[in-house]
Specification:
The protein has 234 residues and is mainly beta. Helices cover 2% and strands 58% of the residues. It is globular and about 45 Å long. The two termini are 29 Å apart.
Length: 234
Amino acid sequence: MRIFFLITLSSILITPLIGLSQELEYLEVTNNEKMRLNINITPLSNGKELVFTDIHTYSKHIFSPVGYTQKWLHKDEKDIHDFEAVRKGNFIHIDGVFKGERIQKTVEIDEKRWINKLDHGLSSWAIGNEDELVFWTLKLSSDLDPIEFRAEKVGQEAIELSGEEYQTVKVKLTLDGMLLSKLWSAYCWYERETGLFLKFEGTNGGPGTPLTIIKLDHKLSPQVTPADKKTDEG
């Protein structure tokens, strides 16, 4: 399962640079295999739109003003996906094609946030006041069933990417629950001032899966600086 990029909040609203899109390029390395990952983030009047692409995948996420996933559109030529998932209350409605088969179902969650973009979906939370967050994600590896993840801030540190030093917030990701948390974990780093996602280190599957490292490689458009902060209890 592609936990990092395919899987997306906050009590702190971070308003992006108004009217401008941000383009970012990341490099994913697993063993000796490398892949370019592209992100485009566009502010909307009532939230933001994030589009992820690689050689096989197009994935669009619509976020609410306080960071919840509202809608997820996912297309994958390799795995034969072409579906849309939309949250309404405590239900997520899914319609389209999944693994080459027609899918039309509704899954029930609770009031916790839904994020099918673990990296950029946690950007606002990473620089907010909450130290831990439990949220829902739909799993591509198991028929889009909902599963709970936990994010925990574990410190601050300086890292260097492409010759540039960043002051970061380090976040640990696990499956939620005492036993499940032992099965998988990963780390993400976010720029301390802006919440920009910088780095991922972990596996994209269960025990025995090779380590994957993803790092910001290029900023293809100017860095977005938060223009405003607003407290919101969601």
